[in-house]
Amino acid sequence: MSIDTDTASHRILVIDDNASIHEDFRKILHHVYSARDEFLRMEAELFGRGDEPAPVGFEVDFASQGQEGLEKVLRAEADGRPYALAFVDGRMPPGWDGIETISRLWEVSPELQVVFCTAYADYSWRDIQQSLGVTDSLVILKKPFENLEVLQLAHALARKWELNREVQGRLRQLAFNDTLTGLANRVQFMDRLGQALGAALRHGHQAALLFIDLDHFKRVNDSLGHGVGDELLQAVAERLRNCLRDTDSLGRPSLSGLAARLGGDEFTAILPEIQKAESAARVARRITEQLSQPIDLGLHRVQVTASIGIAMIPQDGDSVETLLKNADLAMYAAKRAGSNTYSFFQESMTEAAHKRFTLENLLRQAIFRNELSLHYQPQFDLSTGRVSGMEALLRWDSQELGSVSPREFIPVAEDFGLIIPIGEWVLRSACEQTAAWIAQGVDIPRIAVNVSMHQLDHARFSDMVQDILARTGLKPSRLEIEVTESLLAVKPERVLRVLRDLREVGVQVAIDDFGTGYASLSRLKELPVDCLKLDGSFIVDLNGGKPDQALMDAMIAMAAGLKLRVIAECVETTRQSLFLRDRKCPEVQGFHFGPPMPREQAEAFLKGQIVSAGLGPPNPDMAHG
Question: Given this model, what pLDDT does residue 29 score?
């Protein structure tokens, strides 16, 4: 919201009831250009300056009464060409005197510099101070005055007014605009959103609010540094500006909306007047398409995507706070739908948000109430019939809600940052329990623990894992970290770096849900992994016929060629287990062999399988537990 200032000419208003005084000011200020130009020319010649600053000139207007002067000031303000300075006479009968005139002028133009022209006997300084207050915008000039005095005051006060305007403009810029991107900030955004809502209610038209969040922006800051992250935000801001510029029927550009940055990687856009919701969707599609294009930032080429939530105005909220909340809810729905897309707000989202808020509060309490526990599901080596490992699975038995599915509370834990302390508890508990079982003589080759992207993103994740291993005494080779195949596509370099660090100390790594299409097969041999856990959908689809069976054969053979272990998940039937045994699938996991079990039951299961280990492979027709 910068203020343009014309440094080549300043407007001066002379308010005096004496026409001869008007003429005196006209003569004094008439030749300012030529005199100042000559001075600047001589200065440049003397000091060898090639470029001189533009001379400051004056555009002088006159008024005979205070009322007339006020009208001129009002008109100048409305035209966007305000006066910098006013010379005001002390007495102008029969109208307002100088003090009343100045008071009224400042009501409409507070930045106006004023020279109060008065004879010696007219007013004392105390009289003026009591009426107008102490201010640095007022100078008293005693009559009669010298021409040089008027020139000096005109130049000095006009320049002061100009500098004040520049400072005020900069302050307004800081108050209403984001310093990094130049977009509107939260203060200006909330004000404009209120205006859009009010206009929509008064005139019966629609508007739209877009809440825009960059997907995976944190990885840029973490991997390339905050400097590159700031450059990326600036580039995103410029693309947003371009997306909100439309063209009219003649192809001329016109600004159709306001873009704002609320903070971090959160942006918003207000479309103040649209015909239908599809117009907002069209803008959202334009934004996602433009932001997904690669951005060159010096030595780096960066690509980001955006998730956008749309709230229609006024249908989706009768206040700016409600509209912002609902657009935010819609944005999270877009993220859950896969990112790089948009979603309109729906009333059902409010109910879902309330449920998530309740879950969050209860989950925070669950950590301290010891409501969380681990269940253990066995993994079997089909060639020996022995347990080859156990997978630790998190469970929550809430006092208020009963048993809560991990599919419900894990996303909540991730969204609200609870996955870090919970994930650390899971790792520590699993390692402690495994070490305790081994100390009792129960041999468990490994314990598998799932980790999320939020955990891998944590700066101390690798150190934390190694610290837990040291404290529990569990050998690193006994711990297997499971990451989903999708993580390798979202943040490949960061994930690979963390996984390599862990493998260097002996921790094993498995790709969970393998085969869902995210990881490049050509890169599989380069990944720091030890095991592929085949996605359960392939096992379920084995009944579908030869194409599914051929795909399973290919994945098992490929893993063998890369010297990777294979675990087939979700084995639930005898037919599936027989098929996998015939294909020489090394390991299996699923309800057919053993469900997830609490600690005591898992311990009894492990001790029982030791007794029967010499009897050969487990009967495929028998499901343990």
Answer: 87
